[in-house]
Amino acid sequence: MKIDILSPSQETMKRVTQILADARTWRIFCHAKIDGDAIGSCLALLCAGLRFGKRVFWVVSDPAPPSYMFLAHSSDYIVMDEFKFDNPDELYVFLDSANENRGVRGLPSRLDRKGDGTLVINIDHHGDNSMFGDVNCVDPSSSSTSELMWRLLTNAGWTIDSDMAESLYTGIFADTGGFVFSNTTSMTHVALADLLSRGVKPAKIEAALRKNRSLGCTRLWGIACSRIVSWGPDEQFSMTWLFDDDFKNAAALRSDTEGLVGQLMMIQNIRFAVLLTEYKDKGEVKVSLRSRDGTVSAVTVAHSFGGGGHERASGGTLKMPIEKAISEIRERLDKAYDEWNSADR
Ligand SMILES: [Mn+2]
Q1: How far is the CA of 12 from the centre of ligand 1 (A)?
Q2: CA of 216 to the centre of ligand 1 (A)
């Protein structure tokens, strides 16, 4: 299969695979709060390295989520907060990391490490990548680092075995929401077609990633869904909340709220969704905000109480009882909407 891609250049990709081939030891890093794409791309590279007889280390700042543990070598990571990047005999490879401060800390800036003999390769698809590597292989048009990794391996003519194919497919699945987000391109599907031909079973990946919710988590989501309120023009605002006790009663984990606010965005007409989570011992409430394009931005509301994030997804913390937070957020959202509504656009 012949593939013509402008960015990164064939030359850059060749250079990356040549450097990888020349190095005896690879040390692979990725961003914190490790996700499917980071895991998928890291594991594919790790497998490639092992097959070449390299010494390969995978270093992460926090443990990988259990749902990805079905992938080959998925538990072969070392957890570290900080690392000393001073061994010229090791090749440092950063995957899915927009900058050097998002995961394991300690990488000196490009200027500071000049001449110390260390080499850093940066392989990523984030549009805001800071180009911190000595060699940067960055493609924002790629759905995922896993898709870019597939291209790198394919261009180099390196074998993608069934384990690697499964990891890459999983990474692409994760970053494209199952191949439906706007970052999904025809090139994504070219990669997927190739990965399927290498033995990936789509139903197995779907079962692992989507049909794997714990009973406790499902009960917790049920509690949250039973409490949803909506208001505003066309009932376009929605909110729900969880008390400390809900976690105990549902036998759920704190991490089980991951993805919950997205459920509210699936409701007809909803354009803005809020999830509040109580942390009674700290006297805090965690706020998650989601909004659609063309309505009040999530980050505007987050900024109004010291939070942050993106246009469509943001969050923050309120130091107050949850009962107060419910009315507080509602007021801030109404105010942001009034300002948005009266602004010249
Ligand atoms: Mn990614």
Answers
A1: 20
A2: 28
